[in-house]
């Protein structure tokens, strides 16, 4: 597509550059817009590489910025997002980017198709506040394959005045984490072992056959089984208000924080809508991103799971929050420790 229109004069707008970081972390940003709309510049290379998904499973992955999911971008409503998308010469595939937050040209996908050795720059106005998915969509069967190979991320467009609760009162967060959920389809050999391929092109025929059966081999957070557990657990302190942005580019999912709740939940991810309150489990539609705010009240390990517990326990969709602080017996107390039953 070659759009034909008069150029827009944005020369008076301030430009800022943001350095993207790998999830679950999020780049530096203000929660309340500091002034007039700005042009926010991002640069993102596309990296094709093999990724270890589990102890016995490797994925020929395709990534934005080298991570699965791609990094969370944060701007404010009415800012302009200006993305330099780079497809290095050593890659094998064509790629592009479709922003669900953008208007026109297949979300920018029709204007950003780059072959290996090419770069492109896309600018769009962030007109709607909320959390939105972006993903690669190069056309035809390449679209689902690129998505289930890792090419999906999210952008958060904050209201200029920041977030608000159900009564319209200002809400802030102490920390923000981005959890991207992925379904992977890694073929097995005749002995039941996961196959390992030489490159991304070699992996395609068998991966396509498996993914068309709609039964994933793995359902994971942030690219791998255990990627957000143990030493990689997300951390907080008692009293911290934590915003969790959760995306799924391909399938429906049901986030649940074991031992906690969603104090405020923008289930569909759109900040113009009044948030739901006190949810135990919320629903993220495939191809969308949602946001939940929770104030941690007790210390310990909190499991954050897809509450299809088969996918959480058996396929890998589990993360941990490690929270420091003092225990509150008023909220929960072990009145009698487990003891032997006598008589």
From TrEMBL:
Pathway(s) annotated for this protein in UniProt: Nitrogen metabolism; nitrate reduction (denitrification); dinitrogen from nitrate: step 2/4
Location of this chain's protein in the cell: Periplasm
Main EC class the enzyme belongs to: oxidoreductase
Alphabetized Gene3D superfamilies for the sequence: Cupredoxins - blue copper proteins
Stretches assigned to the Plastocyanin-like domain: 54-161, 177-326
Cofactor: FAD; Cu(+); Cu(2+)
Top-level taxon in the UniProt lineage: Bacteria
Listed GO biological process terms: denitrification pathway; nitrate assimilation
EC id: 1.7.2.1
Cellular compartments per GO CC: periplasmic space
Annotated keywords: Copper, FAD, Flavoprotein, Metal-binding, Nitrate assimilation, Oxidoreductase, Periplasm, Repeat
Quaternary organization: Homotrimer.
Family, as annotated: Belongs to the multicopper oxidase family.
Name of this chain's protein: Copper-containing nitrite reductase
Species name: Maritimibacter alkaliphilus HTCC2654
Source species taxonomy: Bacteria, Pseudomonadati, Pseudomonadota, Alphaproteobacteria, Rhodobacterales
């Amino acid at each position: 597509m070659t759009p034909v229109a008069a150029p827009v004069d944005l020369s008076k707008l301030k430009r800022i550059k943001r350095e993207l970081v790998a999830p679950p972390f999020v780049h530096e940003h203000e929660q309340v817009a500091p002034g007039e709309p700005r042009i926010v510049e991002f640069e993102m290379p596309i990296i094709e590489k093999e990724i270890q998904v589990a102890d016995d499973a490797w994925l020929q992955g395709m990534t934005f910025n080298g991570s699965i999911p791609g990094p969370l971008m944060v701007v404010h409503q009415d800012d302009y997002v200006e993305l330099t998308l780079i497809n290095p010469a050593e890659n094998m595939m064509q790629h592009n980017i479709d922003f669900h937050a953008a208007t026109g040209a297949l979300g920018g996908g029709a204007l950003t198709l780059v072959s290996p050795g090419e770069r492109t720059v896309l600018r769009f106005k962030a007109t709607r506040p909320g959390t939105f998915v972006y993903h690669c969509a190069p056309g035809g069967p390449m679209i689902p394959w690129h998505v289930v190979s890792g090419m999906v991320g999210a952008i958060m467009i904050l209201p200029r005045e920041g977030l608000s609760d159900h009564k319209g009162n200002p809400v802030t967060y102490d920390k923000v984490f981005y959890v991207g959920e992925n379904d992977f389809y890694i073929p097995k050999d005749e002995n039941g072992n996961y196959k390992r391929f030489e490159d991304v092109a070699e992996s395609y025929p068998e991966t396509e056959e498996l993914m068309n059966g709609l039964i994933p081999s793995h359902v994971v957070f942030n690219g791998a089984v255990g990627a957000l557990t143990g030493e990689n657990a997300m951390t907080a302190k008692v009293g911290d208000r934590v915003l969790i942005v959760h995306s799924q580019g391909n399938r429906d999912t049901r986030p649940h924080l074991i031992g906690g709740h969603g104090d405020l939940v923008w289930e569909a991810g759109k900040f113009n809508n009044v948030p739901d309150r006190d949810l135990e489990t919320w629903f993220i539609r495939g191809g969308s991103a949602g946001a939940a705010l929770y104030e941690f009240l007790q210390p310990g390990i909190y499991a954050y799971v897809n509450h299809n517990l088969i996918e959480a326990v058996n396929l890998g969709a589990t993360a941990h929050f490690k929270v420091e602080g003092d225990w509150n017996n008023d909220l929960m107390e072990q009145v009698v420790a487990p003891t032997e039953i006598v008589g």
